[in-house]
UniProtKB/TrEMBL annotation:
Protein name (database record): Cryptochrome/photolyase family protein
Keywords assigned by UniProt, alphabetized: Chromophore, FAD, Flavoprotein, Lyase
Enzyme Commission number(s): 4.1.99.3
Domain of life: Bacteria
Domain Photolyase/cryptochrome alpha/beta: 1-131
The keyword Protease appears for this protein: no
Cofactor entry: (6R)-5,10-methylene-5,6,7,8-tetrahydrofolate; FAD
Organism name: Algoriphagus aquatilis
Claim: Mitochondrion is one of the keywords in the record: no
Gene Ontology molecular function: any one: deoxyribodipyrimidine photo-lyase activity
Family: Belongs to the DNA photolyase family.
Length: 430
């Protein structure tokens, strides 16, 4: 008899809620990770750095459990099929796992829960990837918040009252004794290694302490680059939020944005395809493919936009300030559907998070929760003036700046600004 502890986006052993409770409550715990074919099949880039990252982290977990006398089951396939096989192989007592709020994950978990229920096997789920999950922070009428500020206020009040604490050391004695179980390789899953480097999972206290002063300047090391670690749970959000609450509230506020967008997505799964504000679905996007290509490749002739896209293509990261600029440029200057930009980011960003990416894109396009009027169009030059005055960031990514080989602007700023405002205005009058 064994109990499975199913890891998904919580690839760590410290302060992992499902793991902690499984080891506290069950005698024979066998950790499990499934490389989900449903997700991997959608990845076009076969050297996607995220797959390599997950494989590496799962490998580290497995070695860790082996040092403690256990091991880890690593499977590749569609989760329902993998579970059907596991039910044949093992006498499963229960399955412990941390909750995931994305539409696909909820559907997948619903399917697994139903499958287990046929055999009377409990499927126990825990809160782990957030401080407050969708539904915990509601307004006075018990409804979800549609704007950020009151949500964040309520979140902070509750955070202060709750006194969140990380969990203590798990009871490793309850790991199921096992000889090392088989591993899996990238090539067996049809993937190749990636040259992209992943930043470390260390919460740099200096960066956090000075976050509010430095976070807007892409040439500075002013943000923590923990996005990928929050995405895959290689850092505990509870530990990070505690550090942030002691060092810098602006940083904590960013973690609240993350939970705000997760809540918005959970309550409004339609935002994956549609504008949060339905009237904005009437915008007649120009969707010029050549312009989109120039944007993707960092060849628009707008240095700050091009620097950002080149940074993204080369490293899988883009600074938040620049994400806002390139997203505004695509949707407003070029009038290209925000969903095109969103999909491109989803392919490239190491820290891709459906909820935050969708929220960020809808914010930039003016279609989202933000009350910001649509006629506010970012001016790439004034953004450069404010946030990269000495062109340090831009020159890093565009060494040919100022030479003939750098492209001419693909659109005139003033013309594009007026066109965007007129187009939005007309669409909203319908
Ligand atoms: P830091 O500035 O150090 O912040 C720490 C953490 O707080 C981040 O890692 C992230 O988890 C969270 N956070 C910070 N800002 C935001 C925000 N505005 N919204 C939600 N969470 C935030 N963030 C993602 O995690 N995944 C995405 O796919 C994503 N797509 C975006 C798309 C657009 C168009 C825009 C404008 C923003 C997007 N963001 C996304 C938000 C933000 O840009 C990144 O979280 C941030 O740049 C990641 O860098 P960092 O880890 O150094 O962040």
């Amino acid at each position: 008899k064994i109990t499975l502890c199913w890891f998904r986006r919580d690839l760590r052993t410290d302060d992992n809620t499902a793991l902690f409770y499984a080891l506290q409550q069950e005698p024979e715990v066998l950790p499990l990770f499934i490389f989900d074919k449903n997700i991997l099949d959608l990845l076009e880039d076969k050297s996607d750095a995220r797959v390599q990252f997950i494989l590496q982290k799962v490998g580290e977990l497995k070695s860790f459990f082996e040092q403690k006398g256990g091991s880890m089951l690593i499977k590749y396939g569609k989760p329902e099929e993998v579970y059907s096989e596991l039910l044949g192989e093992y006498d499963i007592q229960a399955v412990y796992t941390n909750r995931d709020y994305e539409p696909y994950a909820k559907k997948r978990d619903g399917g697994i829960e139903a499958l287990l229920k046929e055999k009377n096997i409990p499927f126990l789920t825990f809160k782990d990837q957030v401080i407050f999950e969708p539904g915990e922070i509601l307004n006075g009428s018990g409804e979800f918040y549609k704007v950020f500020t009151p949500f964040s206020k309520n979140w902070l009040d509750k955070f202060k009252q709750t006194k969140t604490q990380p969990l203590s050391e798990p009871n490793w004695k309850n790991l199921a004794k096992s000889s090392p179980l088989p591993e899996i390789s990238l090539s067996e899953m049809g993937f190749l290694p990636s040259p992209i480097e992943i930043p470390s999972a260390i919460a740099d206290q200096d960066i956090i302490r000075h976050y509010d002063e430095n976070r807007n300047f892409p040439a500075k090391k002013g943000t923590t680059r923990l996005g990928i670690h929050l995405r895959f749970g290689t850092i505990s959000v509870r530990k990070l939020a505690l550090i942030a609450s002691q060092l810098n509230e602006t940083y904590l506020n960013e973690l609240i944005w993350r939970e705000f967008y997760m809540m918005i997505l959970a309550y409004n799964p339609q935002v994956v395809e549609k504008a949060f504000k339905p009237a904005y679905d009437h915008i007649p996007w120009r969707n010029n493919e050549q312009e989109f290509k120039a944007w993707c490749e960092g060849k628009t002739g707008f240095p700050i936009v091009d620097a950002g896209m080149r940074e993204l293509n080369a490293t899988g990261f883009m600074h938040n300030r620049v994400r806002m600029v390139v997203a505004s440029f695509l949707t407003k200057h070029l009038l290209i559907d925000w969903r095109w930009g969103e999909a491109y980011f989803a392919k490239k960003l190491l820290d891709f998070e459906l909820a935050s990416n969708n929220g960020g894109w809808q914010w930039a396009a003016g279609t989202g929760t933000d009350a910001q009027p649509y006629f506010r169009v970012f001016n790439p030059d004034s953004q450069t003036e404010k946030f990269d005055k000495d062109l340090k960031y831009i020159k890093k990514w565009i060494p040919e700046l100022g030479t003939n080989s750098y492209p001419k602007p693909i659109v005139d700023h003033k013309f594009a600004r007026t066109r965007a405002i007129d187009t939005y205005k007309k669409a909203l009058e319908q």
